[in-house]
Amino acid sequence: MSATEALGRFRAEVGAAVTRARRAAGEVGARNAKLRERTHDLARQARERRVEPGAQATSAEVREAANGFRSDRGLPVEQLPDAAELTAPQAPVPVETPPVATLGSAAVAGPSGQLPHVSDDDEDFSQSRILY
Questions:
Q1: Cβ distance 129 to 107 under 8 Å?
Q2: C-alpha dihedral, 13 to 16 to 20 to 21, nearest 10°
Q3: N or C terminus of the chain with fewer C-beta within 10 Å?
Q4: What is the CB neighbour count within 10 angstroms for residue 81?
Q5: Which residue has the higher pLDDT, 118 or 37?
Q6: Does residue 129 contact residue 104 with C-beta atoms inside 8 Å?
Q7: What does the alpha-carbon distance between residue 82 and residue 62 come to, in Å, rounded to a whole number?
Q8: Distance of alpha carbon 81 from alpha carbon 29, whole angstroms
Protein backbone atom coordinates (compact mmCIF):
# COMPACT_ATOMS: atom_id res chain seq x y z
CA MET A 1 0.00 0.00 0.00
CA SER A 2 1.43 3.32 -1.02
CA ALA A 3 1.42 6.51 1.01
CA THR A 4 -1.18 8.06 -1.34
CA GLU A 5 -3.55 5.13 -0.88
CA ALA A 6 -3.08 5.20 2.90
CA LEU A 7 -3.73 8.95 3.00
CA GLY A 8 -6.87 8.55 0.88
CA ARG A 9 -8.14 5.75 3.12
CA PHE A 10 -7.41 7.81 6.24
CA ARG A 11 -9.31 10.82 4.83
CA ALA A 12 -12.31 8.61 3.96
CA GLU A 13 -12.39 7.15 7.47
CA VAL A 14 -12.10 10.60 9.05
CA GLY A 15 -14.91 11.89 6.80
CA ALA A 16 -17.15 8.98 7.77
CA ALA A 17 -16.38 9.55 11.47
CA VAL A 18 -17.19 13.26 11.17
CA THR A 19 -20.50 12.42 9.44
CA ARG A 20 -21.45 9.97 12.20
CA ALA A 21 -20.52 12.53 14.87
CA ARG A 22 -22.65 15.24 13.22
CA ARG A 23 -25.62 12.88 12.95
CA ALA A 24 -25.27 11.84 16.60
CA ALA A 25 -24.96 15.48 17.71
CA GLY A 26 -28.13 16.34 15.78
CA GLU A 27 -30.05 13.48 17.39
CA VAL A 28 -28.87 14.44 20.86
CA GLY A 29 -29.77 18.09 20.20
CA ALA A 30 -33.29 17.10 19.16
CA ARG A 31 -33.68 14.89 22.23
CA ASN A 32 -32.42 17.70 24.50
CA ALA A 33 -34.85 20.16 22.90
CA LYS A 34 -37.77 17.81 23.64
CA LEU A 35 -36.56 17.36 27.22
CA ARG A 36 -36.24 21.13 27.74
CA GLU A 37 -39.73 21.70 26.35
CA ARG A 38 -41.20 19.01 28.62
CA THR A 39 -39.36 20.44 31.64
CA HIS A 40 -40.61 23.94 30.78
CA ASP A 41 -44.19 22.64 30.57
CA LEU A 42 -43.89 20.84 33.92
CA ALA A 43 -42.48 23.97 35.59
CA ARG A 44 -45.32 26.06 34.15
CA GLN A 45 -47.88 23.56 35.46
CA ALA A 46 -46.24 23.65 38.90
CA ARG A 47 -46.26 27.45 38.94
CA GLU A 48 -49.95 27.47 37.98
CA ARG A 49 -50.56 24.65 40.47
CA ARG A 50 -52.08 22.42 37.78
CA VAL A 51 -51.17 18.79 38.10
CA GLU A 52 -52.16 16.12 35.63
CA PRO A 53 -54.08 13.22 37.17
CA GLY A 54 -51.72 10.38 38.04
CA ALA A 55 -48.62 12.54 37.66
CA GLN A 56 -45.59 11.12 39.44
CA ALA A 57 -43.78 13.50 41.76
CA THR A 58 -40.01 13.91 41.70
CA SER A 59 -38.35 12.65 44.86
CA ALA A 60 -36.97 15.16 47.34
CA GLU A 61 -33.41 13.81 46.91
CA VAL A 62 -33.47 14.38 43.16
CA ARG A 63 -34.90 17.88 43.59
CA GLU A 64 -32.19 18.76 46.13
CA ALA A 65 -29.46 17.42 43.83
CA ALA A 66 -30.83 19.42 40.88
CA ASN A 67 -31.06 22.61 42.95
CA GLY A 68 -27.52 22.08 44.26
CA PHE A 69 -26.22 21.54 40.72
CA ARG A 70 -27.83 24.78 39.53
CA SER A 71 -26.73 26.86 42.49
CA ASP A 72 -23.13 25.53 42.31
CA ARG A 73 -22.90 26.75 38.73
CA GLY A 74 -24.53 30.12 39.40
CA LEU A 75 -27.72 29.21 37.54
CA PRO A 76 -31.10 30.50 38.68
CA VAL A 77 -33.03 28.15 40.95
CA GLU A 78 -36.77 28.68 40.75
CA GLN A 79 -38.67 27.93 43.95
CA LEU A 80 -41.57 25.69 42.99
CA PRO A 81 -44.11 24.09 45.32
CA ASP A 82 -43.39 20.56 46.47
CA ALA A 83 -45.52 17.56 45.55
CA ALA A 84 -47.58 17.70 48.76
CA GLU A 85 -48.64 21.27 48.00
CA LEU A 86 -49.50 20.48 44.39
CA THR A 87 -51.63 17.44 45.19
CA ALA A 88 -53.41 18.99 48.20
CA PRO A 89 -57.00 19.96 47.46
CA GLN A 90 -57.29 23.67 46.98
CA ALA A 91 -59.80 25.69 48.93
CA PRO A 92 -62.53 27.03 46.68
CA VAL A 93 -62.02 30.64 45.79
CA PRO A 94 -65.08 32.70 46.82
CA VAL A 95 -66.61 34.43 43.88
CA GLU A 96 -67.90 37.87 44.60
CA THR A 97 -70.75 38.94 42.40
CA PRO A 98 -71.73 42.57 42.22
CA PRO A 99 -75.31 43.33 43.24
CA VAL A 100 -77.63 43.38 40.29
CA ALA A 101 -79.83 46.42 40.04
CA THR A 102 -83.18 45.62 38.51
CA LEU A 103 -85.46 48.43 37.48
CA GLY A 104 -88.79 48.52 39.31
CA SER A 105 -87.92 45.68 41.67
CA ALA A 106 -88.27 47.70 44.87
CA ALA A 107 -91.33 49.57 46.01
CA VAL A 108 -91.08 53.33 45.98
CA ALA A 109 -92.74 55.61 48.50
CA GLY A 110 -95.72 57.46 47.10
CA PRO A 111 -96.67 61.15 47.48
CA SER A 112 -97.75 60.60 51.06
CA GLY A 113 -94.33 59.11 51.87
CA GLN A 114 -95.76 55.68 52.66
CA LEU A 115 -94.61 52.44 51.17
CA PRO A 116 -97.22 50.11 49.72
CA HIS A 117 -98.71 47.44 51.97
CA VAL A 118 -96.74 44.19 51.81
CA SER A 119 -98.86 41.09 51.38
CA ASP A 120 -98.59 37.55 50.12
CA ASP A 121 -101.02 38.33 47.34
CA ASP A 122 -98.92 38.87 44.25
CA GLU A 123 -101.82 38.78 41.83
CA ASP A 124 -101.73 42.46 40.92
CA PHE A 125 -98.30 43.74 41.82
CA SER A 126 -97.96 45.89 38.71
CA GLN A 127 -100.01 48.76 40.17
CA SER A 128 -98.09 49.10 43.43
CA ARG A 129 -95.77 51.80 42.09
CA ILE A 130 -98.60 53.80 40.60
CA LEU A 131 -100.98 53.74 43.58
CA TYR A 132 -98.50 54.67 46.28
A1: yes
A2: 60
A3: N
A4: 13
A5: 37
A6: yes
A7: 12
A8: 30
